[in-house]
Every structure is written in structure tokens, then in C-alpha cells.
Amino acid sequence: MILIHPDREALSSAAAELFVREARQAIAERGSFISLLSGGETPRRTYELLACSRLRDQVPWERVHLFWGDERCVPRDDPRSNYRMVREALLDYLPIPPSHIHPITCEGGADAGAAWYEAELRAFSHGGIPRFDLVFLGIGEDGHIASLFPGSRLLGETERLVAVSTRENEAIQRVTVTVPVINQAALIVFLVSGEEKAPIVREALAGMREMPARLIHPVDGKLFWLLDEAAVRLAQE
Ligand code: 6PG
């Protein structure tokens, strides 16, 4: 499903409302809600709106577990840290138990971090692939999702849940979930805003050339694209 909003604020508001709706439904049905959060800048406003009392107070945060889809191997107070972005926008305002916050860490190195996070995910799924109730994803101008970059051998990973990723011309390493984790979700939501994303959105929606988004097919769930008008400008031509 493709949902188009006038601008980033409307997109972010819709995404925050969606999070609350999904959380309340999952908790009512199963007693818990686990979500995989996206990094980058696009979701920041969504998280900020979710932290506002009008929405925050509708969620029983003691029933929620938050994970990250990827992380850069930098200190947690580094401006490039996805954990820092979510902490600043959301976590600092939530009555959520610290044990329910599951950031990726690269302590001991990226490989150790990936192995640890894989164990963390498997602990949530009795050894299998965890079924996240909600996965937020962004998309880079080159088409990457999480830290799965176009042409990466990680795109074909079918066994590991978490892997070390590197980006061309980027000195740091990254830790990312793999496609099977994303596709196991009950609901996958792409959040895409801005005219700079219009070319990649057009290619993604048209299923053009080999790119990570083409691999995102929920096994037994739903896939939403929440876009603003700037991001779909070319796709509508
Ligand atoms: C990351 C993100 C990444 C992000 C895209 C879009 O760590 O880089 O997880 O996958 O979603 O790069 O980023 P923006 O929202 O900043 O455009």
C-alpha cells in the first residue's frame, strides 16, 4: 500500500499514529509489541511526535521492546549514531524499562556486535527469526535500506539475522539486520520524504534495476510506503 502525504510533517504524524495503533493492537492481542526502528534523519520527526504526551500516553511502554535495524560503529554520543538520534527524539521522554531498549553495540568490534545482536534477536524468537510487529525503514538516495547497500553480498544472506556491513568510501563499519529479519515482520513501513528521494522512489516502485527494496516482501505480513509528495513527484510523471 502506498500512502502519500502533503509534506514531511504530515508523513511523520501519520507514521507516529500508525505506531500507536499497531502497538495498542499488538498489546491487546498478544500482550507485547516489538518494533525495529530505522535510523537516518527521516524518522526523527516521527519519533519526536511519538514522544509528545498526546501519543506517548496511549502506549503501555512497559509492554514494548525497541530494536534497531542498523547502527554505525561509532560512540553512542556520536552525531552519526542511530541510537543517539532515537534517544534524543524519543527514548529520553518514554517511561520504558531500560531492559526493553535493545540498541546495537559494536563494543568488542563489529563482528562481536553483530554476533551479540543476532543472539539478542534469536532470544526473542526461541532461536528462530523474530517476527517484529512493526519495522520502520528508510531508503537512501542510492537505494540502500538499513545498512544493506546495492550490490552487497549481504542482500543474498539467508542464514544470518545480523551482519557487518561497510559502505563504499565510508571509514566506519556498520551492523545491520538482514533481509529475512525484515521480511518476517507483520508490518513493514517505508518512511520516505524529500525530492532528493524521488528518483529512487520511482525506481523502487517501478521495480526497476536490482536494488534492496525489491527484496522486501513480507512473508506473512503487510508492506506500506508512507511518502510525501516531494518524494513521489517523479513517480507520478
Ligand atoms: C542508516 C539508516 C539508513 C537510512 C537511509 C535514509 O543508518 O543510514 O538506517 O538506512 O534509513 O540512509 O536516511 P535519511 O532518512 O537520513 O535520508
From TrEMBL:
Residues 6-225 form the Glucosamine/galactosamine-6-phosphate isomerase domain. Pathway: Carbohydrate degradation; pentose phosphate pathway; D-ribulose 5-phosphate from D-glucose 6-phosphate (oxidative stage): step 2/3. Keywords: Hydrolase. One of its GO terms (biological process) is pentose-phosphate shunt. It comes from the Bacteria. It catalyses: 6-phospho-D-glucono-1,5-lactone + H2O = 6-phospho-D-gluconate + H(+). GO terms for molecular function: 6-phosphogluconolactonase activity. Its EC number is 3.1.1.31. The keyword Cell inner membrane does not apply. The keyword Hydrolase applies. Belongs to the glucosamine/galactosamine-6-phosphate isomerase family. 6-phosphogluconolactonase subfamily. Hydrolysis of 6-phosphogluconolactone to 6-phosphogluconate. This is 6-phosphogluconolactonase. The gene is pgl.
